[in-house]
## 1
Amino acid sequence: MQRILAQSGKEWKQFRRDPLSMWLAVLMPVVMVLLFGYTLSLDPDGLRLVIRDLDNSALSRRYVETYIGAADFQLIAWDSELAVEQALETGAAEMVLLIPPHFGRDLLAGRPAQAQALIDGADANTALILRQTASALNASFLARENPALAPPVRARIRYWYNPGLSDRRFFGTGALGMVLIFFPALLGAIAASREHELGTVIQAYASTLTPAEWVIGTALPYVAVGCVELVCGYLSGAVAFGYDLPPDPTAFLAASVGYIAIGVLFGMWVGHATRSQSISIQAVQLGVFLLSLLLSGFLAPLENIPKAIRWLSYFIPARYYVEVVRDALLRQGGWRTNGLDVVILLGLAMLGFWGVWSQVRRMRFPD
Amino acid sequence: MTGVVIRARGLTKVYDRGTKQELCALDAVDFEIRKGEIFGLIGADGAGKSTCFKILAGVLEPTAGEVEVLFRSPRESRQRVGYVTQPFSLYEDLSVAENLRYAAGLREVDEEAFAERSRRYLEAFDMKAFTDRLAGRLSGGMKQKLALSCALIADPAVLLLDEPTTGVDPVSRRDFWDALGGLADRGMTIVVATPYLDEAERCTRIACMENGKILAQYPPAEFVSRMALTRLEIRTCDLQRAEEMLERHERDGILADVQRFGDRLDVLVSDPVADRDRILEALEAEELKPEVLRSGDPTLENAFVATLRSKRGPESHAHFPDRATAPAERCGELALGTKGLVKRFGSFTAVKGLDLEIRHGEIYGLLGANGAGKTTAIKMICGLVQPSSGEISLLGRTKGFRTAAVRSRIGYKSQKFTLYDDLTIGENLDFYAAMYDVPPKLCRARKDWALEVSGLRGEEGMLTGRLPDGWKQRVAFGAAVMHQPDIVFLDEPTSGVDALARRAMWRMINELADNGAAVLVVTHYLEEAEQCNRIGFMAAGDMVAEGSPSELEKHMPGVLLEVRAANVAASLGAFRQALGRDRVTQFGERLHVQAPDVGAGEREIQAIAEAQSLELRSIEPIPFSLEDVFLALIERRRAASDKAA
């Protein structure tokens, strides 16, 4: 025990002595949660609309008003001389609404009237949303003008867990999953590779410190730092996006500690294997950050990943943790809903411990 | 005091076994170390010393052989072994106290013992005022003391010290060895590796290592006495000619060895009278005005050279392929001069008014401890740092030192990073030749010369990274002078090489100077200083003393007496008590005592021995080493500045 404390105490002092890692550890989770939350949004906001009304009848004006009234649109030109193709070509607008002559007359005469919506299809996600919005607005115009055409059944839609459908709440939670593996892994990698780079590991080798003591003693302070990051990240999300802890947060907390430990241990494993600070930092950046970002279901649903490589995600701890965080902070879930994910995370942490332990198990130089 | 504490039999370590990189670092080594001994491992970089320490410390598994530390396997004995590694295994971002606490925690030292021992060692090593300072901010000497304190904090029975004094100033080195003497007297067994021969003299027994083998192991005095030769120090008016002449005699078997130093020749002969007369006669016939300065035992360095040579055979004597046409005319001209050179960094003055004059054909040694201002001075001369004031003249110019024309006449070999590890030896030489504009038609001959003098003929295609450091030094030196520079700057040119390789390199350096180059050597190795024609000794930015090695020795007041006593530990205590700490130093089984003159010294020593009933075996006057001179100069300077303050 004394030896574990000696090792941990030394690591903690080294960490504290380095102002850069101190600030990184405390500030970065806050910055990342806010940054991911605010910048990553798939919800198109303030879509620009150009309207060309060649009919200019009472009906066509009412049709146009339906669009202008929708909160999603920002009207940038109405019947100006701006050429329609040009508006899309230059990227000045995402959609052009073109109402041909005789629109009102045809409609009054009971003939099918036509209106054209030209949508910039370069951004598929936005184009899709525009199409749906245009059809919905079209339908609502018809229903208003001729109640006989209103659909007999109306679905009343309520969004649970994230009533405002805020992307911020959604991505902010996932950002916790990124922060809590990336920084602990970085700290673990620096701690382990530094010992080799400066040759100080020989002190531990030359003492009777056991491999398990070395692993635990080194990892402990960094897991503690990770827990501080968890608190900082959660609090900033709570203030900015209104996160709420579930009534029983134990599953969430257990998963978090396990997840942080996975990060630290994986980092130590990389640091020990590469024996170089610069290489291990790059390895962590590429390996941990990039893979967690792409293969965890953080950005897009895992189902969107082609089957051929989707299995990879099972080896990415972030996959399980992002699930747990969203479940806990957005759905107030716990052991019942995500127990398996928590168990898998704790299992992976054990695996990480075994990995580092077997690396140093002989506590001497390789032959 | 006679129990064997460490025992190794057939100890072998092969790295990367079965691969192309296979390297036998230890080759069936046998040794036994007794309780209370200071056992020295002496050898070049790559001789196998560090591997040996790692095995004894239990952090490396031997490939074959038996090894026992404190009657158990090294791993089982780790708790009772203190280990100072090279480089020091200190956490630079932790303070002195925190480093100690970590070392104590790893070895489960209880709180009470930790408090008592850390206080004791911090006090003994004058570090009490620095407990909160970060280890990274300590000087080399302080780091060394901290590393030793960390190793001692668990009160070990065996202390392993892997080159503990590398990069440490001479004053700290001497303090350190005094401390080791005290520990050994209390029964601690010490194994130590050192590149310094004066430190080797302070061991109880030394083992001379090469290529993973122990060539010989004896007490230092026995190394010398087994040679059964006499060493003559001879001064002549033309060392170069005298050396060439005597080398012919050496080949004819008339004398055992001849070696050129800065202002003398060392000649080893078997008959101190007849051979001496023969040599003097021969030198006089050539009108070389010989003068025998001293006649006595060979040095430890002589002994090592002989030991290595007997295993390795004669070394090559290749000459530089195309000598300068009229070297003699250039000799004596001023090559490099400075006047009142000053460099200030903020409020700190690194160099305080340096005056230097180095002439063509001269080897000048700039000596001083770390931080004395040597490096800053060199950087100013090379034009890398702007002087705050003062003048520099280089090859007749006073400015524009960074132009290609000037730089192509300068050779520079820094202490490290001169060769690319991932190029072959030949490619490295080609690169340097191209960089310094060696004419293509001379390239082949000079490359061959560089390979020849490095002892690497036919190994052109070998990757440089695979060479041991000592060999790299020689190739790097060859590369640095291939363009036949007029001024050569050498930074610790022979650190990390063995005695024989060092001689080969100095032969090359002497040849450069004989061909008219001016050579400036920056070093803190005594062995290198002795090779210089003139030495300038810097301390705290000032030139404290300047002159040839023998002129410098005159700065030393009094005489030095070597005392052999039956009970070294008791005698050391008694002499120190009566004469003061500074005047008595332990060298293994011998004591060195400073005295105003031989007669008075002998009387003093006899009186103390009688009063304490100590049995003395012999008292003999011996010459001061350059190291003694420097220590005295530093001490005198420190006393003067204390008085001024």
## 2
Amino acid sequence: MSKDRIEEFEEGIEDTQKGKFLTFSLGKESYGISIEFVTEIIGILSITEVPQVPEYIRGIVNLRGKIIPVMDMRLRFRKAFREYNERTCIIVIDILGNSVGLIVDSVAEVTAIPEEDIVVPPMTHSGSSNKYIMGIGKVGHDVKLLLDCQKLIDKEEIDNFELTI
Amino acid sequence: MNDYVNEPMLEMYIFETSQLLEQLEQAIMECEKSNVYPQEAVNEIFRLMHSIKGSSAMMLFNEVSTLAHTVEDLFYFLREQKPKIVDCAKLSDLVLESIDFVKVEIEKIKGRDEADGKATLLIDKLKDFLLLLKSQNDCEGSLERPKTNKNQQYYIAVEKKSDMLSENKYKATIFFEEDCKMENIRAYTIIHRLAEISEEIFYTPQDICENEDSSADIREKGFQILMKTNQPYEKVYEFLMQTIFLKELILIQLEDNQEFESSYTAQRTNIENSADKIPYTEQKQDKNQSSKEVYNQGNQAMISVNVNKLDKLMDLVGEMVIAESMVTKNPEIQHLELENFQKAARQLHKITAELQDMVMSIRMVPLSTTFLKMHRIMRDMCKKLGKEVRLEVVGEETEVDKNIIERISDPLMHLIRNAIDHGIEDKEERGQRGKDKIGTIVLEAKNQGNDVLVIIKDDGRGLNKSKIIQKARENGLLEKSETDMTDKEIYSLILLPGFSTKENITEFSGRGVGMDVVTKNLEKVGGSVAVESTEDVGTIITLKIPLTLAIIDGMNIKVGDSRYTIPIVAIKESFRCQDESYFTDPDDNEMIMVRGQCYPILRLHKYHQVKTKIKKISEGILIMVEQNEKVICLFADALLGQQQVVVKALPNYIKNIKNINGIAGCTLLGDGSISLILDVGGFMDSQRL
């Protein structure tokens, strides 16, 4: 097979993933993450607590022999903790080989949001509160807060988080 | 320069070449022992060098390839002329030196550095040696390696050979940029790449691989290629245009077969099974086939597998074991009478257990390769120091986990060097003492329970107790009065950092680092070092290494809802405590008195902030753990039982956030839940005991 054809093929995959977002809800808000980072969605598993880590990291879970950390998105965004129920999901994302589970209230659907429907989040007074949001997508009458996955697991961000606590 | 070389190929190259080098080293060490180079060995070395040359040229590591070529020349001479007078020692030295050079280059490549070593000096030495051999053995003229006697070399890509007849024939003439150097190698690369898209290729000059002078030809007349392919003109043109350092390309589509056929009327040899084999070796190899087969029989049943795949396999089997217990111990069937089911479940259990053992055993590697390396070190040292030492190897088939092997190789090297440098006496001294002039070092490996013992025994002068004590005193390493010390304690002094009895620093040892590095390295893998010695009789150093890092014997304990695992080796005892033996000091540190000794208590639930109902010392259990001769009592809710556990690292993400003190990793328990493995050493650090 020629190189060109392979490249075309790969581009094709990227194309189908581009502009598609997995949407989930946290309380009243609806969020979206680009599906290229998502590896799977699972129900809540039994979580083993790990000491000495920030509160929003609930611990580690056993995903078919692979041990991955899970992060409660409610706590991450400083919302009140809610007990997990049958709607609670773990979205497993993979960023640069690091798998991390995100605990969310519930997963909605995969939607395509064209680029022209995504607007840059406005600056707020504090200036930094939107750092995890890379854009705001409009779907019909709803808005989806689109998350920047990279920033979510960035070490620096974590340090800042701990400082502000 | 190598940025267009794709990664998997480079990886393969490094892997292959390292293996070839290892084989080469072995072959040479064997020859040196017997001080003759038998015909099979010469053939073997020739073949190995040839492979190294070929692959290095492919990857454009030219210095390595030229060096290998020179060595190959040397062995070609040995093979063809069978000279009578050969200075074996010199020959071995030269070849080993060449191997070392290639090793260094490979290390550079591994570290993603430019392989920029210059082998010119070494190549000159090799050439001189070859000349010397020639003059000594009095053979003239016929020494030149015959230039390839085929008129044309051509390649046929296997998969394309039979099923299509290509209609398009092209003639291409390629000129490289003036100062690009090594035109022949570049031409070879083109041919190699072309082989993928074309059925037949002929080219002039033909001897691009063997003859470096062909570069000049290419520079002058250009590199001419004739080929048959079913690709259209544009494709071929485009393909050739990708060549680096290309200055000019003339591509002509030929109308008929005439020119094509005229160019290979002479001989036609099919090289069917390999695209990059060069005909003249092919011929020779046939001749040697039978002897080589005998030579290689030992390696035939081996395949090499990526360790990551093995790790994955181990994970999967671990999961399967858990899944099995989830099925057979499922609460929904617990109260049913299922005779057949139980039978089948037992069978399943047996098979999974066997499977698990098998997977574990795959990761085990015999120590023999590590031991073989020691031969080489010994040889080099004996030469330099003028000592004669015999190395006896016992039990090299003993198997150890792959990870551990990698980490004990350095300590072993230190110990062997020490033994030769410090232990074994000079020949004269040995004679005076009535010992055999040739010193002996015994390298022995054996299993003992869950550990492997590696014993290094020399018959040298042994350790001098008074010297050790004196030295230790000078360096302020003595902790108690010397009269109170047992022999064992005195000998252990040499394991401390900054201790070296040798006054003079030699090339090999005596920098005062050796022994404490040995201890450190071994402690890292959970092993230990013991020294025994008798003056004038010799020294015995015993390394105790765990069989594997991946599995440990652990004690599972419970604290609140969390479960932890403590390595059994660290546990001294566990006990319930009566209220009266436990007390608190004014700083609120809890202590306990056991048999007249006082130990601090560390409450796990406090340390790891776990909620638990059991907070009274007398309700829970105390586990006394020891590491580096420091003892501490851990307080937990209850013991759950002993189990062999597979150690897994915590996810990187968590490790990046915080280096958690007191947790060494995690493991999966039989029911699929996760247990954290406690790092006893970590507690000690955090307590600053």
